[in-house]
Amino acid sequence: MDRIMSTRIDESVIVLIDRIAREKKMSKKKIIEEAIENFWQKIHGKKGIDIFQDSFGAWERDEPAADTVRRSRQALNQSMKRHHKCETLSHGRYYRRKAMAVIAT
Question: 24 with 32: CB under 8 angstroms?
Fold first, then answer.
């Protein structure tokens, strides 16, 4: 699926892309895609992206999973307290208590 990307490019580069597109009878999109792919190959010496190699070890953390869960729950609880204040409605308090009980488990 193609996506739209907006960026500021020097006018001389835009003129060059237009010139290449006319001379080679290629779309500007194709020229930019091939240029990026060639740049990637030049830097990494390989074609394409190996997601497993590039992300290997990304799941390893400096802290135990229990600490991550505790911090996440603490942030969520603070957010719930801040954004779901119940003032006068008793059913609002019920839902807040219910939500807080679910979060705590």
Answer: no
